[in-house]
Specification:
Elements lengths: L1 H5 L4 H26 L4 H20 L3 H21 L5 H22 L8 H5 L7 H20 L1 H9 L1 H6 L4 H31 L2 H9 L3 H26 L3 H26 L4
Helix pairs in contact: 2-7, 2-10, 2-12, 3-4, 3-5, 3-10, 4-5, 4-10, 7-10, 10-13, 11-12, 11-13, 12-13
Protein backbone atom coordinates (compact mmCIF):
# COMPACT_ATOMS: atom_id res chain seq x y z
CA UNK A 1 0.00 0.00 0.00
CA UNK A 2 2.91 2.32 0.80
CA UNK A 3 4.34 1.70 -2.67
CA UNK A 4 0.97 2.54 -4.19
CA UNK A 5 0.87 5.99 -2.57
CA UNK A 6 4.56 6.63 -3.21
CA UNK A 7 4.01 6.94 -6.96
CA UNK A 8 1.84 10.01 -6.38
CA UNK A 9 4.94 11.99 -5.37
CA UNK A 10 6.14 12.03 -8.98
CA UNK A 11 5.01 15.03 -11.02
CA UNK A 12 4.73 13.02 -14.24
CA UNK A 13 2.24 10.70 -12.53
CA UNK A 14 0.12 13.46 -11.03
CA UNK A 15 0.15 15.19 -14.44
CA UNK A 16 -1.05 11.94 -15.98
CA UNK A 17 -3.89 11.64 -13.45
CA UNK A 18 -4.96 15.24 -14.08
CA UNK A 19 -4.85 14.61 -17.84
CA UNK A 20 -6.87 11.43 -17.34
CA UNK A 21 -9.54 13.28 -15.37
CA UNK A 22 -9.80 16.06 -17.97
CA UNK A 23 -9.88 13.53 -20.80
CA UNK A 24 -12.64 11.57 -19.08
CA UNK A 25 -14.75 14.75 -18.92
CA UNK A 26 -14.13 15.61 -22.59
CA UNK A 27 -14.57 12.05 -23.87
CA UNK A 28 -17.59 11.52 -21.62
CA UNK A 29 -19.44 14.48 -23.13
CA UNK A 30 -18.26 14.10 -26.75
CA UNK A 31 -18.55 10.31 -26.69
CA UNK A 32 -22.12 10.37 -25.40
CA UNK A 33 -23.05 12.69 -28.27
CA UNK A 34 -21.51 10.56 -31.02
CA UNK A 35 -22.89 7.33 -29.52
CA UNK A 36 -26.37 8.87 -29.32
CA UNK A 37 -26.11 10.03 -32.94
CA UNK A 38 -24.89 6.54 -33.91
CA UNK A 39 -21.77 7.97 -35.56
CA UNK A 40 -19.18 6.16 -33.42
CA UNK A 41 -16.73 5.66 -36.26
CA UNK A 42 -16.54 9.37 -36.94
CA UNK A 43 -14.07 9.53 -34.04
CA UNK A 44 -11.93 6.86 -35.70
CA UNK A 45 -12.06 8.75 -38.99
CA UNK A 46 -11.09 12.07 -37.40
CA UNK A 47 -8.30 10.44 -35.39
CA UNK A 48 -6.66 8.73 -38.34
CA UNK A 49 -7.16 11.77 -40.57
CA UNK A 50 -5.29 13.87 -37.99
CA UNK A 51 -2.18 11.81 -38.73
CA UNK A 52 -1.89 13.87 -41.92
CA UNK A 53 -1.41 16.98 -39.78
CA UNK A 54 1.20 15.21 -37.66
CA UNK A 55 3.21 14.22 -40.74
CA UNK A 56 3.04 17.71 -42.26
CA UNK A 57 3.98 19.33 -38.93
CA UNK A 58 7.09 17.14 -38.70
CA UNK A 59 8.04 18.06 -42.27
CA UNK A 60 7.70 21.81 -41.69
CA UNK A 61 9.21 21.72 -38.18
CA UNK A 62 5.99 22.65 -36.38
CA UNK A 63 4.25 21.31 -33.26
CA UNK A 64 2.80 17.89 -34.24
CA UNK A 65 -0.26 18.32 -32.01
CA UNK A 66 -1.08 21.67 -33.59
CA UNK A 67 -0.93 19.97 -36.98
CA UNK A 68 -3.11 17.14 -35.71
CA UNK A 69 -5.67 19.62 -34.31
CA UNK A 70 -5.83 21.52 -37.61
CA UNK A 71 -6.35 18.35 -39.66
CA UNK A 72 -8.82 16.90 -37.13
CA UNK A 73 -11.06 19.99 -37.22
CA UNK A 74 -10.90 20.13 -41.04
CA UNK A 75 -11.79 16.43 -41.23
CA UNK A 76 -14.70 16.75 -38.80
CA UNK A 77 -16.14 19.71 -40.67
CA UNK A 78 -15.46 17.94 -43.97
CA UNK A 79 -17.40 14.85 -42.90
CA UNK A 80 -20.38 16.95 -41.79
CA UNK A 81 -20.30 19.03 -45.00
CA UNK A 82 -19.95 16.01 -47.29
CA UNK A 83 -22.90 14.18 -45.71
CA UNK A 84 -25.23 17.22 -45.63
CA UNK A 85 -24.26 19.24 -48.72
CA UNK A 86 -22.34 16.96 -51.11
CA UNK A 87 -24.78 14.05 -50.81
CA UNK A 88 -22.05 11.61 -49.74
CA UNK A 89 -22.88 8.76 -47.36
CA UNK A 90 -21.46 9.37 -43.90
CA UNK A 91 -19.52 6.09 -43.77
CA UNK A 92 -18.04 6.82 -47.20
CA UNK A 93 -16.98 10.34 -46.17
CA UNK A 94 -15.34 8.95 -43.02
CA UNK A 95 -13.50 6.27 -45.00
CA UNK A 96 -12.25 8.77 -47.62
CA UNK A 97 -10.91 11.29 -45.09
CA UNK A 98 -9.55 8.48 -42.86
CA UNK A 99 -7.52 7.09 -45.78
CA UNK A 100 -6.48 10.51 -47.10
CA UNK A 101 -5.19 11.69 -43.72
CA UNK A 102 -3.15 8.53 -43.13
CA UNK A 103 -1.74 8.67 -46.66
CA UNK A 104 -0.70 12.33 -46.32
CA UNK A 105 0.85 11.67 -42.92
CA UNK A 106 2.91 8.71 -44.14
CA UNK A 107 4.10 10.63 -47.24
CA UNK A 108 5.29 13.64 -45.25
CA UNK A 109 6.94 11.51 -42.55
CA UNK A 110 9.00 9.80 -45.24
CA UNK A 111 9.78 13.18 -46.87
CA UNK A 112 11.01 14.65 -43.57
CA UNK A 113 14.79 15.09 -43.82
CA UNK A 114 17.05 13.34 -41.33
CA UNK A 115 15.97 10.53 -39.05
CA UNK A 116 12.37 9.42 -39.21
CA UNK A 117 10.48 10.76 -36.17
CA UNK A 118 9.43 8.39 -33.42
CA UNK A 119 5.68 7.99 -33.90
CA UNK A 120 5.05 5.39 -31.18
CA UNK A 121 3.61 7.92 -28.70
CA UNK A 122 1.20 9.19 -31.37
CA UNK A 123 0.13 5.73 -32.49
CA UNK A 124 -0.20 4.09 -29.06
CA UNK A 125 -0.25 7.01 -26.62
CA UNK A 126 1.94 7.87 -23.66
CA UNK A 127 0.02 9.68 -20.94
CA UNK A 128 3.17 9.94 -18.81
CA UNK A 129 4.59 12.55 -21.21
CA UNK A 130 1.82 15.07 -20.51
CA UNK A 131 3.21 18.52 -19.65
CA UNK A 132 1.86 21.44 -17.63
CA UNK A 133 1.16 23.29 -20.89
CA UNK A 134 -0.91 20.34 -22.14
CA UNK A 135 -2.92 20.43 -18.90
CA UNK A 136 -3.64 24.14 -19.31
CA UNK A 137 -4.97 23.62 -22.85
CA UNK A 138 -7.01 20.61 -21.74
CA UNK A 139 -8.42 22.50 -18.75
CA UNK A 140 -9.53 25.42 -20.94
CA UNK A 141 -11.20 23.07 -23.41
CA UNK A 142 -12.85 21.03 -20.62
CA UNK A 143 -14.29 24.20 -19.02
CA UNK A 144 -15.58 25.52 -22.38
CA UNK A 145 -17.12 22.16 -23.32
CA UNK A 146 -18.75 21.78 -19.89
CA UNK A 147 -20.22 25.28 -20.03
CA UNK A 148 -21.33 24.65 -23.61
CA UNK A 149 -23.20 21.43 -22.80
CA UNK A 150 -24.89 23.08 -19.78
CA UNK A 151 -26.03 26.16 -21.72
CA UNK A 152 -26.96 24.37 -24.96
CA UNK A 153 -28.03 21.03 -23.49
CA UNK A 154 -31.45 20.81 -25.15
CA UNK A 155 -30.36 21.87 -28.67
CA UNK A 156 -27.50 19.34 -28.55
CA UNK A 157 -29.83 16.66 -27.17
CA UNK A 158 -32.46 17.22 -29.88
CA UNK A 159 -29.82 17.29 -32.62
CA UNK A 160 -28.27 14.07 -31.35
CA UNK A 161 -31.50 12.08 -31.27
CA UNK A 162 -33.67 13.58 -34.04
CA UNK A 163 -32.01 16.30 -36.10
CA UNK A 164 -34.81 16.42 -38.69
CA UNK A 165 -37.51 17.10 -36.10
CA UNK A 166 -35.23 19.58 -34.30
CA UNK A 167 -34.86 21.51 -37.55
CA UNK A 168 -38.62 21.83 -37.93
CA UNK A 169 -38.75 23.54 -34.52
CA UNK A 170 -36.39 26.26 -35.77
CA UNK A 171 -33.12 24.95 -34.39
CA UNK A 172 -30.07 25.55 -36.57
CA UNK A 173 -29.11 21.89 -36.44
CA UNK A 174 -26.43 22.15 -39.12
CA UNK A 175 -24.61 24.86 -37.18
CA UNK A 176 -24.89 22.76 -34.02
CA UNK A 177 -23.43 19.77 -35.88
CA UNK A 178 -20.48 21.83 -37.12
CA UNK A 179 -19.74 23.26 -33.66
CA UNK A 180 -20.02 19.88 -31.93
CA UNK A 181 -17.90 18.25 -34.67
CA UNK A 182 -15.18 20.82 -33.96
CA UNK A 183 -15.37 20.08 -30.24
CA UNK A 184 -15.20 16.32 -30.90
CA UNK A 185 -12.16 16.84 -33.13
CA UNK A 186 -10.26 18.85 -30.51
CA UNK A 187 -11.22 16.37 -27.80
CA UNK A 188 -9.89 13.53 -29.93
CA UNK A 189 -6.56 15.28 -30.49
CA UNK A 190 -6.03 15.76 -26.74
CA UNK A 191 -7.08 12.14 -26.14
CA UNK A 192 -4.28 10.92 -28.44
CA UNK A 193 -1.95 11.56 -25.50
CA UNK A 194 -3.89 8.96 -23.52
CA UNK A 195 -4.51 6.11 -25.95
CA UNK A 196 -2.86 7.02 -29.24
CA UNK A 197 -4.32 7.09 -32.74
CA UNK A 198 -4.78 3.31 -32.80
CA UNK A 199 -6.82 3.01 -29.59
CA UNK A 200 -8.43 6.42 -29.00
CA UNK A 201 -11.78 5.33 -30.48
CA UNK A 202 -12.22 3.14 -27.39
CA UNK A 203 -12.23 6.13 -25.01
CA UNK A 204 -15.31 7.45 -26.80
CA UNK A 205 -17.26 4.19 -26.80
CA UNK A 206 -16.34 1.82 -23.95
CA UNK A 207 -17.29 4.16 -21.03
CA UNK A 208 -20.57 4.89 -22.84
CA UNK A 209 -21.17 1.15 -23.29
CA UNK A 210 -20.68 0.66 -19.56
CA UNK A 211 -22.95 3.62 -18.79
CA UNK A 212 -25.71 2.24 -21.04
CA UNK A 213 -25.95 -0.81 -18.75
CA UNK A 214 -27.23 1.52 -16.02
CA UNK A 215 -29.06 4.27 -17.92
CA UNK A 216 -30.23 5.49 -21.32
CA UNK A 217 -30.82 9.05 -20.17
CA UNK A 218 -28.48 11.43 -22.07
CA UNK A 219 -27.50 13.50 -19.04
CA UNK A 220 -26.98 10.53 -16.74
CA UNK A 221 -24.99 8.74 -19.44
CA UNK A 222 -22.55 11.66 -19.54
CA UNK A 223 -21.98 11.45 -15.78
CA UNK A 224 -21.62 7.66 -15.80
CA UNK A 225 -19.26 7.81 -18.78
CA UNK A 226 -17.03 10.37 -17.07
CA UNK A 227 -16.93 8.28 -13.88
CA UNK A 228 -16.18 4.94 -15.54
CA UNK A 229 -13.76 6.57 -17.97
CA UNK A 230 -11.71 8.09 -15.16
CA UNK A 231 -11.82 4.88 -13.11
CA UNK A 232 -10.46 2.92 -16.09
CA UNK A 233 -7.76 5.51 -16.76
CA UNK A 234 -6.66 5.63 -13.12
CA UNK A 235 -6.51 1.84 -12.71
CA UNK A 236 -4.82 1.51 -16.09
CA UNK A 237 -2.18 4.08 -15.11
CA UNK A 238 -1.38 2.26 -11.88
CA UNK A 239 -1.19 -1.08 -13.71
CA UNK A 240 0.99 0.43 -16.42
CA UNK A 241 3.41 1.83 -13.83
CA UNK A 242 3.75 -1.39 -11.84
CA UNK A 243 4.03 -3.78 -14.79
CA UNK A 244 6.00 -1.42 -17.06
CA UNK A 245 3.54 -1.76 -19.94
CA UNK A 246 2.23 0.86 -22.43
CA UNK A 247 -0.25 3.09 -20.60
CA UNK A 248 -2.70 3.45 -23.52
CA UNK A 249 -3.08 -0.27 -24.06
CA UNK A 250 -3.47 -1.02 -20.33
CA UNK A 251 -6.10 1.72 -19.93
CA UNK A 252 -8.21 0.34 -22.78
CA UNK A 253 -7.73 -3.24 -21.55
CA UNK A 254 -8.88 -2.15 -18.07
CA UNK A 255 -11.97 -0.43 -19.48
CA UNK A 256 -12.89 -3.57 -21.42
CA UNK A 257 -12.48 -5.66 -18.24
CA UNK A 258 -14.75 -3.28 -16.32
CA UNK A 259 -17.35 -3.50 -19.10
CA UNK A 260 -17.17 -7.32 -19.21
CA UNK A 261 -17.43 -7.63 -15.42
CA UNK A 262 -20.40 -5.27 -15.08
CA UNK A 263 -22.13 -6.77 -18.12
CA UNK A 264 -21.68 -10.26 -16.70
CA UNK A 265 -22.99 -9.29 -13.27
CA UNK A 266 -26.01 -7.50 -14.79
CA UNK A 267 -26.84 -10.61 -16.84
CA UNK A 268 -26.66 -12.81 -13.75
CA UNK A 269 -28.85 -10.39 -11.76
CA UNK A 270 -31.44 -10.13 -14.54
CA UNK A 271 -31.57 -13.94 -14.90
CA UNK A 272 -32.02 -14.37 -11.15
CA UNK A 273 -35.12 -12.16 -11.30
CA UNK A 274 -36.82 -14.35 -13.91
CA UNK A 275 -39.74 -16.44 -12.56
CA UNK A 276 -38.80 -20.08 -11.97
Amino acid sequence: MHDLFSIFQYSFFTNAIAAGFLTSILAGIAGTYIVSRKIVFISGGITHASFGGIGMAYFFGLNPFMGAAFFAVLSALGIEWATSKANVREDSAIAILWSLGMAIGIIFVFLTPGYAPNLMSFLFGNILTVTQTDLIYMSVLAVLVTIGIIVFYRPVLYTAFDAEYAQTTGLKTQLIKYVVATVVALTIVFSIRIAGIILVLSLFTIPQSIASIFTHDFKNMIFYSIGFGFAGILMGLIGSYYYNLPSGAIIIFTLVLIWALIKGVSKIVSMSKLPH
